[in-house]
Here is the input.
Amino acid sequence: MIEFDFGAVLAEWPLLLRGLAWTVGLTAVAVPLGLLIATLGAWARACGSAALRRAVGVYVELLRNTPFIVQLFFVFFGLPAMGVKLSPEAASLIAMTLNLGAYGTEILRAGIQAAPRGQWEAAQSLALGPTQVFTRVILPPAFKRVWPAMTSQIVIVMLGSAVCGQISTEELSYATNLIHSRNFRAFEATFVALAIYLALTLMLRRFLLWAGPRWFFGGASLPMRPSLWRRLGRAAGAGAGAAND
Amino acid sequence: MIEFTLWDILRNLALALRWTVALSLIAFIGGGLVGGLLLCLRIGLGRKTQRLIGAYVALFQGSPLLIQLFLAYFGLSLLGVEVSAWTAASLALTLYTSAYLVEIWRGCVEAVPKGQWEAARSLAMSFGEQLRHVILPQAARLAIAPTVGFLVQVIKGTALASVIGFVELTKAGGMIANASFKPFLVFGCVALFYFALCFPVSLAAQHLERKQHGRTT
Here is the structure.
């Protein structure tokens, strides 16, 4: 008869909490940076010179056709040999960001390709500059079109962070391994981690699908609402105004 | 101390590549079989089975493959089975693959127009015949490109088996890097080996997809 002892695992909740915080923290930093790279990459592929388009294509295909764990090992073990020394956390962050950047570029490119030619022309005829055409006219609906796919990719990157424990980043799977090396409850500890990751996936997906249209590519489909940045700006302005009074 | 030349590194990695390929094939074929079975259950049986399989898919898509590997490894040994890294990795990757494939294939079956089911039924075909002669051939044509695309995902997934001690390309790379003190070169080569394996498959998937779009539109 198999006896389970989940109590022994849950008793180590501070470790689990710390691991969870690292997982969430790494994701929270890597995702905006990754999306930034994705945006730049998609811009390069849509508007860049032939050489730039090629370079971005090589980056995307290299990252998409190698396992994340190898990318991580390359950054953490390989780069120090070239004189770049990185902490495990920094290496994890770089690997996650570059990974999301590559997949995001490809996803966003599909959204930009779907933009009708007339939109580019209409925006140009309104005397918008090339950057304005891209960021104001083409990009927001492109993000909106691909947001479900982007959400899935972000979830995959969050789940991928479990691998970062292998280079001793102290995220959730690392905490799990630490716990079962203490109490030998390997199955229970892993099971608890599984449950936490599932809950995290569920919440992250919900959050992204909810937050994307509201804050990120704001207002395109919703009744016009000021974006978060504008509201923050206004609040800061009001705060500054109050301070002046 | 043994000196590692580039040739030694490449040769050893190429030897380890065999196990990556073998594990990928096991996972892909096993996952295809389990996925096909689940797909049939999903189409043929009622709401409850659909829910259950939906939960199965959500479980595998909503947790890290690494944790699934650990769970298979520790779970099997808990059941009293003598686990090697082979068994645990094969089991976990097979189940992981099946969960993704059943989801991909479900989409393909649902993409077959409803009229096809009705037409087949009006010809007095039994459910099995409808599926075999009318629905699955059409769904299979839709399914080829995304299935080949997913193979890349499986190959990359096998890299995680290194964590539970399965000596494939990544694990071999780690061991050689430790022995040769040339981690940059070794992991660069490992990445290139994976690229050489995955990129043609990616290209094939893209090509198939384009061909299909050409046909349907």
